[in-house]
Amino acid sequence: MSKENINIEQILDRMRRLDQLIEDRQLDDALELALKIEAAVTRAGIRSAHVTWTIGVIYDYRQEPELAFARLQDALSMDPFALPFRHSVQLISNRIRAALRAPERPAGDPSTLRLWELLARAGQADDGAHVALGRFHLATGNDLEALRILVAVTALFPACKDAWALQAVVAAKLGDHQLAERAAAEAALLGAEPIPFSIPGGARS
């Protein structure tokens, strides 16, 4: 595939226009322009980490975390020393973790598994994210997988009271009353409230 000549100044002018669109939160127009810029530089045989990062930022502002995270990780793989890229990855990771921990989040929300996988692949999954995954498996009928995850979480993070409390619920449901009692006792020591047996189902700054 032959490479096209590229007008650097023209691309820079379009990048400046793109920055203004992002600042004005005209996100549909910004995404359209960013993808056109990416196509132009790609045809010239250039992979731009900055353009990739900018597209990730736009997706983040559009509240499309999966697309945003993929782009930001791609940008970081091209330039692992770019502190703004690392900062953006950390920001969106924090937001995803907060979303997974949110008390109002339905336990069986189908996006939970996808969001957890994003964090796990990037090494950003914490105890709260793992507990959310356990809660998801419990809500969707995969009790054994939920218990496996929660046992692992309490082994790695023994101070995670939510993991102990949920482990007590899952173990009781599976008929392992000895484990359920031990987990409930650990949760109580850490100050966790008992869980009912039935569980209802911008990266730049």
Number of domains: 2
CATH topology of the largest domain: Serine Threonine Protein Phosphatase 5, Tetratricopeptide repeat
User: How many helices in DSSP terms?
Assistant: 10
Total count of strands: 0
How much β-strand is present in the residues?
under 5%
SSE order, as H and E? HHHHHHHHHH
Supply the CATH class of the largest domain. Answer: Mainly Alpha
CATH architecture of the largest domain: Alpha Horseshoe
Q: What does the overall shape look like? A: elongated
Structure description:
With 205 residues, this protein is mainly α. It folds into 2 domains: 1-106, Serine Threonine Protein Phosphatase 5, Tetratricopeptide repeat (Alpha Horseshoe); 126-197, Serine Threonine Protein Phosphatase 5, Tetratricopeptide repeat. It is 70% helix and 0% strand. It has helices at 8-23, 27-43, 49-61, 65-78, 83-101, 111-121, 127-139, 143-156, 161-173, 177-189. Helix 4 (65-78) runs antiparallel to helix 5 (83-101) and helix 6 runs antiparallel to helix 7. The longest helix has 19 residues, at 83-101. The radius of gyration is 22 Å and the shape is elongated.
